[in-house]
Amino acid sequence: MQLAQRAAQLGEVPVGAVLVLNGEVIGEGWNQPISGHDPTAHAEIMALRAAAQHIQNYRLVDSTLYITIEPCTMCAGAIIHARVARVVFGATEPKAGAALSNGQLFDQLWMNHRVRYDGGVLEEECREQISAFFRQRRAQHKALKKQRREQALPESVTQEQPGLK
Ligand SMILES: [Zn+2]
To answer: How far is the CA of 136 from the centre of ligand 1 (A)?
Structure first.
C-alpha cells in the first residue's frame, strides 16, 4: 500500500506490488504507465522485473507476489510466465480483474503453470486507497472545469454584446 501511494504521488492509479522469496522482499513495484510512457508498467510487472534482476533468473519459482488490487490479464500472464507460486491481493477489480472477477486466468487448465491465489487481504483498506484517488481526481477535474467556466464568462459576455465598445 505504501508503494501504491508512490504511484498516486505521480498521478498514477495507486497499485503497489511486492515479490517475496523465502521471507525476503526481492522486488517492489508501483503503477507507472503514464509517467514511464510504458503500457506494461503495471506494479506487478515492475516488481517481477526487479525481482528477476535481483536473482538473475526470469523464473521466480516458489515466490509470492502481494498486490493491492487483483491483477489484469497482462499481469496474470506475466505471473504465470514467471512461475510465481502464489498471488495474494487486496481488493478485487470488477472490470479488469483476471483472477476472479472478469477472468479466471490462474484456473485455466491449458496454462502450463498453476498459481495459487488469495484475494480479499486488507480488502477494505486497498479499495479505499483506490477510491480515494479517483474521488480526489474527480474533484480536481470538477474544480478545473469550474475555473475554466468562470474564466470564459467575461469573454462570452462581450461576445453577446458586440456593439459595446
Ligand atoms: Zn496489470
So the answer is: 22
